[in-house]
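Quick log. Single chain, no ligands specified.
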Amino acid sequence: MFVGREKELSLLQRRWDSGRFECVVIYGRRRMGKTTLIGHFLKNRPAIFFSALESSESKNLETFSRSIALFEGGPSAMDSAPLHRSLADAVEAVFALAKQRRIALVIDEYPYLASADHSANSVLQHAIDRHKDDSRLMLILCGSSMSFMERQVLGYQSPLYGRRTAQIKVEPFGYADARKFLPSYGSEDAATAYGLTGGVPQYLLQFDDTMSLEDNIRVNLLDPGCYLFEEPDNLLKQELRNPAEYNAVIQAIATGSSRLNAIATACHMETSSCSTYLRNLINLGIVRKETPFGQKTSRKTIYRIEDSFFRFWYRFVPSNISLIQSGRVDLAATRVMSGISDFMGPVFEDICRQWLRARNGTDKLPFLMLGAGRWWGADPRTRQQEEIDIVATGDDPDDMLFCECKWRSIPSSVKEWETLKRRSALLRPKHGHYMLFSKNGFDKPLRTEAQNDPNTNLVAFEDMD
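-> predicted structure:
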């Protein structure tokens, strides 16, 4: 089953239709479906697909040579075709094939090839420079090592810098696409499954929508033998050196440390080292760095776990590990379910932001949003910390939209509306608009108030599809 990725497919189609030489770089964290995306796009198109190996230079050259032979002569030619003498020779052979016809060359897991053959970047650079003006080749370089792809392929110090004609960073799915993996689930269960998996395609595929959420949590998240139980640890080991230190940083954030000094103290490390670890986790999409919307001061910078699958794992697994290890996974799953509504608060905020972006520029919003984010700060009168889930602005910075997102089992009331208006006054808007999102709708008094206020809109979760 192939889901979503319309923008990515559209970009690839435009590059293919150009008929000219193209070099498209596709990268993103593991499990995001990069290879699936490429395979779907190239279906019924002439293509050489070479998946590099975490092996020697000679083994990769042998595999590449056989991929070329498969394209030229079919499966029977793979074992009898002579091996190319070098990577440069193999690349030249591909460019020769693309002189008169449109073909694609995919080098999947390109970092493996570049690690085995340190000349790979330069070989491709020289071949591109020689042939780009008279070649019909569409070269696709794909990789999961974020740091390698961003520095060694896209970075300005790379020999390949300036040779790419397009790039695609493959991200997790949003809620709208994620729920297509779970057609038998209602909206609420689908949203929760989206939060538990972070929208990662490979994680969504582990869920069975003929089972209850609690059963999926028990079987596919908490069982020590399941695919996802050790996934955070495996991903850190695959993507990063010193995974234990990164694990400590994530654990510190998950247990309440949000500022750099507090995280470093919790991890018993220097702030300079902690800052490096945080930057790498941000690049992987696991951690997010935030300042209150509209402010640039680093004094208020905090760090949050961006990836909701990681947020789930670090929130619920360590606290239930004794039950899990003693075989009481059923009891651990029941404990998780008791806290799932609270866990879904930030997930619902994310879903609401996606809803706003999807409707930006339509009459669903009071103005065209040009910036949006979370805001927090102290009320100078009460000295209490206040927070607004979403604040958005457009061309006029004094025209502001304020949003409250409630994932609760009861309808939202006038109290939430009044609280939102009180908090919004701390930002001193000249013209304020208010939007309340609620999982379980709104009570009658609030609906009446909203009907009489043209600046207030109520959006029930059931109407967000």
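The mean pLDDT is 94.
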